[in-house]
Amino acid sequence: MMSWRPSLQGRRGPRYRAIAQALAEDVETGRLLPGQRLPTHRELAFALGVTIGTVTRAYAEAERQGLTAGEVGRGTFVRTRFDTVQPSSEAHYEFGMNAPIGGSEAECFSQALHRLAESPTLSELCSYPDLAGLPEHRIAACRLLASLDVPALPERTMLTAGGGGALSAALDLLVRPGDTIATEELTYPNFKALARLRDVRLRGLACDRDGILVDAFAEAAADGGIKALYCIPTMHNPTGLTWSIERRRAIAEIAQRHRIPIIEDDVYGFLVPERPPSFVSLAPELVLHVNAASKSLAPALRLGLLVVPQPFVGRLTGSHWIASPLMAEIVRLWVEDGTAARLMEEKRREGAARQAIVRRVLAQAGLRHASSHANAFHLWLPLPEGWRDNDAVAAAARIGIAVNPASAFAVGRSEHNAIRLCFSRPAEREQVERGVTKLAELLAGSPEAAAPIV
């Protein structure tokens, strides 16, 4: 029997969007619960009288919105979202979103906006810029990247509407429907959704603490079936690990030998002061480097940075990822007056303080965690024996805690039984400690004791 069937009556627009909208509403109202399995693509397509491709697009849109997670061999499940946890007398803890840690951004914005209001170039900043961004903004972007030891030239740097825009632009440059991209076996869920919307397949490669296994990438490259490699080598999402310099050099050498482009996602790299060389410094002729001011400076700065090899300059057409000149001007001001460096240092210090709290609480509860950088906003937590990731997520939601299951990050069948725990959203460190203590107490017990009584 099919467990869920959306109501599409009266909904306008493409069918896949109507299905995704109905799914979101049913999650919001509690008709769909965290951890609940959704119908297969084929079952839902038959029930609604639509194509399997329509359901696939609907599920991809739902995953992009953070509503669902798919796992090969098990199906598609409703994810836990903080705003879907049912109200109770207990406090709620948003540990599911890997958002930047807040600092003095509001004061910095206030000062920058006053300067913008008096700027003689304000009218120009309110117009459409060139596709890649105004020259002075690209120069500032390169200065920001240089402070992170990422070499970039203004003529090879493109500004986009957020990091997602930079990832989308990189995909548009490299792949076509039906192509395959290699990636880590656990990867950024929004990248999975972007690939699925383009009908691009992902091939997950085995990893260890130093990064993608050399033999795994060498085999994939020799097969000739992959068009690019997407990876997060510094402060990996979700595990928090950073690839070793030896592994980076080995992977870069294989990529150069087979002429395989690399999309290097570096949005969390600013958290690692003494970082290994970036891929763009090891293989500049092959690497598309992705960064974003929203993570390192302020969430409201929807500005993505995309550094491309010389052969790709001028190949991207269209304006659907174009950046706001006003946002880019604020970044320029902050880079020039030192605000950018100060905001990044604030986030590193606060990340370190919160990471220390979380590690201490977990250790006191006897829970082991995967190693992560001391400044990270998140931590990868293997689950104790008896727990499954989706069950743990559902149990945490019932006590007001939002976390992410390993299955949300898996490429292909997940062999990982863990959750990603983020701790940047709570306003105060005390909230982090209370919430993690509550989660640790839950996981230290048995899954049976946490199961709901029906």
List the helices and strands and how they pair.
Layout (H helix, E strand, L loop, with lengths): L14 H15 L11 H8 L3 H13 L3 E4 L3 E4 L14 E2 L10 H13 L4 H4 L9 H12 L10 E4 L1 H13 L5 E5 L4 H9 L3 E5 L1 E2 L2 E2 L1 H10 L4 E4 L13 H14 L3 E4 L13 H4 L4 E6 H4 L7 E4 L17 H13 L1 H26 L13 E5 L6 H10 L2 E2 L1 E2 L12 E5 L6 H16 L2 H4 L4
Parallel strand pairs: 3-14, 5-6, 5-9, 9-10, 10-11
Antiparallel strand pairs: 1-2, 4-12, 7-8, 11-12, 13-16, 15-16
Helix pairs in contact: 1-3, 2-3, 3-8, 4-13, 6-13, 7-8, 9-10, 14-16
Short description:
The chain has 17 helices and 16 strands. It has 454 residues and is an alpha/beta fold. The radius of gyration is 22 Å and the shape is globular.
Give structural attributes.
single chain; 454 residues; Arc Repressor Mutant, subunit A; Aspartate Aminotransferase, domain 2; seven-stranded mixed beta sheet; three-stranded antiparallel beta sheet; 17 helices; globular
Largest sheet: 7 strands, mixed
CATH architecture of the largest domain: 3-Layer(aba) Sandwich
What is Rg? 22 Å
Question: What fraction strand?
Answer: 5-15%
Protein described:
- With 454 residues, the protein is α/β, with parallel strands linked by helices.
- It has 3 domains: 63 residues, Arc Repressor Mutant, subunit A (Orthogonal Bundle), CATH 1.10.10.10; 124 residues, Alpha-Beta Complex (Aspartate Aminotransferase, domain 1), CATH 3.90.1150; 233 residues, 3-Layer(aba) Sandwich (Aspartate Aminotransferase, domain 2), CATH 3.40.640.10.
- The protein is built from 17 helices and 16 strands.
- It has a 7-stranded mixed β-sheet with strand order 4-12-11-10-9-5-6, sandwiched between helices. Strands 13-16-15 form a 3-stranded antiparallel β-sheet, with helices on one face.
- Helix 8 links the parallel strand 5 and strand 6.
- It starts with 14 loop residues before the first helix and ends with a helix.
- About 2% of the residues have low confidence.
